[in-house]
Write a structure and sequence with these properties.
single chain; Rossmann fold; 2 domains; nine-stranded mixed β-sheet; globular; binds NADPH dihydro-nicotinamide-adenine-dinucleotide phosphate; binds magnesium ion
Length: about 350
């Protein structure tokens, strides 16, 4: 069983005694900054010149500085820019301005695990990674609850890195729910595997193959959309509430029997072998290298794959059908229709 931390295991005054610079004010950055501030922590936000996020942070009353100036003031620097830009921001603006002995905190282990960032020996290097998107991290905190966090220490220069990590986790509300002790390696490898094999890659491909199979067999795309995409949410909600068992309990006996006899035909043992190959490429750094090399070249492969995905017929069908369902939240449509991920 994993080692767990809760509010009583952490001392909030440690982080309250630090000057914290949060670099980036996106999904995680805005949630961490606001939760820290509301926990009585001295926070400033570091953003690039001309940043789109600056007005949002200032509207919340936060002090916004350049990355360099925010880092110069801080004894804890929280790196919450997108993973693919972290090493450039670190090399150009963080490392040259870092106060001696200042600690570094990450929300994901990618740049440390794959050596894109190599911190000085004198810095504590810690991770507090919420297991949910930033808007949930903020909303739960405001409601007096929290989103569980993974907590890790890669480098304990001060001898106090764990106490600092737990104090930070408490300040963003994570220890109200619970913190799980992990390592940068475990967090990074499992996070990449989960999103590639199951959550994003696996689920998207399963939905598209199901839709294509029905449409190619002559069924109407609108009907195929409901069966293969829309209803997935109902199934996943049941799994989240009560595991696979609750899903099987809730569906009809016909559906449950079909689950047992056809699930292993569709997702056969070769799929597990493919998953093992995906995991191997994560562990040996091949995936990280492919992603970062492509990003460094201006992301040609990424952009091509994104355009190809957006052109799949299931998307056009879905856009029309969602208009029929007033309860489906399409508030964030504009964000992704523009292709901003
Ligand atoms: P976002 O893409 O939401 O954050 C973007 C922010 O970084 C914006 O404020 C952006 O400014 C700023 N930024 C971009 N480039 C630079 C730069 N060169 N210099 C300074 N600031 C810059 O990131 P996420 O919150 O999704 O991810 C942050 C970290 O958290 C990552 O390590 C990620 O893996 C991790 N994480 C993310 C989760 C999530 O749910 N999103 C969950 C758990 C961990 P501008 O507005 O100007 O573009
Ligand atoms: Mg991830
Ligand atoms: Mg059905």
């Amino acid at each position: 069983m994993a080692e767990m931390f809760y509010d009583d295991d952490a001392d909030l005054s440690i982080i309250q005694g630090r000057k914290v610079a949060v670099i980036g004010y996106g999904s995680q950055g805005h949630a961490h900054s606001l939760n820290l501030r509301d926990s009585g922590v001295d926070v400033r936000v570091g953003l690039a010149e001309g940043s789109k996020s600056k007005a949002k942070a200032e509207a919340e009353g936060l002090r916004v500085l350049s990355v360099a100036d925010a880092v110069k003031e801080a004894d804890l620097v929280v790196i919450l820019t997108p993973d693919q830009v972290q090493r450039t921001v670190y090399a150009n603006e963080i490392q040259p301005n870092l106060r001696e002995g200042a600690a570094l905190l990450f929300g994901h282990g990618f740049n440390i695990r794959f050596d894109y960032i190599r911190p000085e020996a004198g810095s504590d290097v810690i991770m507090v990674a919420p297991k949910g998107p930033g808007h949930l991290v903020r909303r739960e905190f405001v409601d007096g609850r929290g989103v569980p966090v993974l907590v890790a220490v890669e480098q304990d220069a001060s001898g106090q890195a764990w106490a600092l990590a737990k104090s930070y986790a408490k300040a963003i509300g994570g220890l109200r729910a619970g913190g799980i002790k992990t390592t940068f390696t475990e967090e990074c490898e499992t996070d990449l595997f989960g999103e590639q094999a199951v959550l994003c890659g696996g689920a998207s491909q399963l939905v598209m193959y199901g839709f294509e199979t029905l449409v190619e067999a002559g069924y109407q795309p609108e009907v195929a959309y409901f069966e293969c995409l829309h209803e997935l949410k109902l199934i996943v909600d049941l799994m989240v509430e009560g595991g696979i068992a609750k899903q099987r309990w809730s569906v009809s006996d016909t559906a449950e029997y079909g689950d047992y006899v056809s699930g292993p035909r569709v997702i056969d043992p070769s799929v597990k072998e493919n998953m093992q190959a995906v995991l191997a490429d994560i562990k040996n750094g091949a995936f990280a290298k492919r992603f970062i090399d492509d990003q460094d070249a201006g992301a040609p492969e990424f952009k091509e794959l994104r355009a190809k995905g957006a052109a799949h017929p299931i998307e056009a069908t879905g856009r029309e059908l969602r208009k029929l369902m007033a309860w489906v939240d399409t508030d964030r449509d504009s964000d992704y229709v523009e292709g901003s991920a």
